[in-house]
TrEMBL record:
The keyword Lyase does not apply. GO terms for cellular component: endoplasmic reticulum-Golgi intermediate compartment; extracellular exosome; Golgi apparatus; membrane. It is found in: Cytoplasm; Golgi apparatus; Membrane; Secreted. This is NUCB2 protein. Residues 7-128 form the NUCB1-like N-terminal domain. Keywords: Cytoplasm, Golgi apparatus, Membrane, Phosphoprotein, Repeat, Secreted, Signal. Its main location: cytoplasm. It comes from Haliaeetus albicilla (White-tailed sea-eagle). PANTHER family: NUCLEOBINDIN (PTHR19237), NUCLEOBINDIN-2 (PTHR19237:SF22). One of its GO terms (molecular function) is calcium ion binding. InterPro entries: NUCB1_N, Nucleobindin.
Length: 133
């Protein structure tokens, strides 16, 4: 049946195939709750987004949005740590370089696992952009 979308209904976007797809979606959803950032996102062209110019707008979002982004990042870091631990448990190799494992996750700044900063948004955008080049 060709039922139309109800005003304000969220349209589910297709799966990106990225292992951090859920994190990406959640970050976008939270950022879009901030009116200023949503307006900047809607008027930005693809080059502004890829260049990191849009990431600098993160400093202007509300405290509530930043707090929610910080929580999302902590959850994603915990998820990645579980993946690393599972990989380590399966390999049982004591010579694993934990920093090298973390560096393979280029969609967030692993050196700052507690707060979501403009660098995190920039890294997330660049990781997604690199995937679709």
């Amino acid at each position: 049946k060709g039922e139309g979308h109800v005003e304000g209904e969220k349209v589910e976007s297709p799966d990106t195939g990225l292992y951090y797809d859920e994190y990406l979606r959640q970050v976008i959803d939270v950022l879009e709750t901030d009116k200023h950032f949503r307006e900047k996102l809607q008027t930005a062209d693809i080059e502004e987004i890829k260049s990191g110019k849009l990431s600098r707008e993160l400093d202007l979002v509300s405290h509530h949005v930043r707090t929610r982004l910080d929580e999302l990042k902590r959850q994603e870091v915990a998820r990645l740590r579980m993946l690393i631990k599972a990989k380590m448990d399966s390999v049982q190799d004591t010579g694993i370089d934990h920093q090298a494992l973390l560096k393979q996750f280029e969609h967030l700044n692993h050196q700052n696992p507690d707060t979501f900063e403009p660098k995190d948004l920039d890294m997330l955008i660049k990781a997604v952009s690199a995937r679709y080049k």
